[in-house]
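note to self: dont lose this again. the chain is below, predicted strucutre after it. 251 aa total, dont forget to put it in the shared folder this time
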Amino acid sequence: MYENVLYWIWLHELIGLPLKAKRMLLQCFTSPQAIYHASFETIWQTLYPATVAAQHAKYAPLSTLWENRTLVPAQQILSNNEKHSIKVLCATSPYYQHLFASDHKLPLVLYYRGHLADPSQPVVGVIGSRSSTSYGHLVTKAAVATLVERGNIIASGFSYGIDSIAHETTLQHHGITYAFVPCGLHRIQPACNTSLFERILETGMVITPYAYGKEALPFRFMGRNDLLASWCSTLLVIEASLKSGSMHTAQ
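---
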């Protein structure tokens, strides 16, 4: 099991090979381990079976990348995971494989803490403005209470405002909530949600596409939003400006 996850993390974290290429390799090889042990010539022919002149520019960088490939970063990630109770979801997991297959933007590996519910249980995303109004608070509480009563898992982005209220209300009504975060699980962000983080883990989970130690850079919020949108069967947006991250998630 360790070895299987190790190679998945290696491929997921491999810098210099785009996600589209990684997915193409997975379609042609039996596993990430088989990809790792394949020769550069085999990798090149798989990705570029009919090489044209413009593609020769990619040959040297990819050759160097393959020559220098190593499992050390993946081993370090697994070591950190073990120390901090972080679990790994690979693309072949029954909790994730249907999502991975249906959305080409989703990553090969996810990292989480806590507990995953049965994948057949519906997940509703409830998101919105960090600068929410009292009216938004009332709407969120009422909507989440009804959704939990009907057996839904509530997913949100763990930010200030609507997100935090959605998580809190779910817990108050003894429901399960999933928090999607834009950084590694080495820190709780925002720090004021530390108590909420720990309470979510009792029955739900905190999940991210990013390994231990990776900070919440702007582009990672978009990756978090894409994952949240794909995970939810329904998305409820409360109080969001047209150019906000919540609207990006909805789109």
